[in-house]
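In the laboratory, one determines a bound structure by crystallizing the protein with its ligand and collecting diffraction data. In a computational setting the workflow is compressed into a single prediction: the sequence and the ligand go in, and a structural description comes out. We illustrate the idea with magnesium ion.
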Amino acid sequence: MKNYLTLGQNDVKKAAKSLKDGQLVVFPTETVYGLGADATNQRAVARVYELKARPQDHPLIVHIASVDQLFDWAIDIPNYAEKLAEKFWPGPMTLILKKSEIAKDFVTGSQATIGVRIPSHPMAQSLLIEFNRLGGLGIAAPSVNKFGEVSATTKEMIDIEIANLLTNKDLVLDGGKSSIGIESTIIDCSNKIPTILRPGWITEEMITKFLDFKIIDLKYKSSIKHSGSFQSHYKPKCKIILGQEPQIGDGMFALSKFKTPPGVIRLGAPRTVEEFARNMYLALSLADRKKMKNIHIIPPEGKGLAEAIRDRLKKASHT
Ligand code: TXA
Ligand code: MG
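The predicted complex, in structure-token form:
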């Protein structure tokens, strides 16, 4: 049963006010939808953890309206991090930095760092700007899903994931389908050398080329909690099988160049790697809605976004 109200672009002010009053607002971003709470409101943030059944020590990303606000949330910001922010924000990139006084333990999972991002989705941008006008410093928002499950990229997926957990005071902003479809690239900038903790649309090549020095050590073992530290994550209820022949009645998701064997139910045939990322979580959610036992996926090859897709699929198929 749905309790919450769904709103559009004209109601962004109302949503910002609701957030400021301590309610939760689900909002679209270009990566995946976020379950937003005022990042300085302990009770609102606690509700996010409760709804997601998320471990307390698993930190949230704070979404801000402008690069200036980065200095509210972080200290000792290295020069390279400022450069990355200027270049890739607004966009699908999260920077991990040493936290300021404002970043309390209840949002950072008691770590000494804070994750910050400026999303580029127009509705997220207007929400953040309105929230800032009301004196809000940032919106803490994890992906919309139960802990360890698939992130919502459409309004329909939100209805399935958390609709019955929201109250009639919470809001959902419907901004259509997320255009990227997988979560932001997370870059740890709390050291001299930046490290990618979670691959995404902004790739290692893009960062290295832009900063003009080879800096990313993917083998670096970070002690901080992040999605990369879990072997299993982004999991639907059905079983994901990689690189095997699908059987009759199984689901299949692969690039359009791969044919569907007879009796197999095709859940998507993206033409490009970008389209693959955009539709992947939707296909997994569809397989669950159809109560399928197995979904066969042929991961795209190559570097860049394909690597980020393979990272998610590896964790989603972990048994
Ligand atoms: O694209 C995204 O990043 C989406 C949208 C809504 O912005 N958000 C998202 O949030 O994916 P979530 O909570 O599902 O995943 C955030 C990841 C978690 O794995 C968390 O551990 C990591 O970011 N993270 C957040 N703050 C961190 C910190 N201070 N240090 C290390 N990892 C951090
Ligand atoms: Mg998540």
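The longest strand covers residues 93-99. Keep in mind that any predicted model is a hypothesis to be tested, not a measurement.
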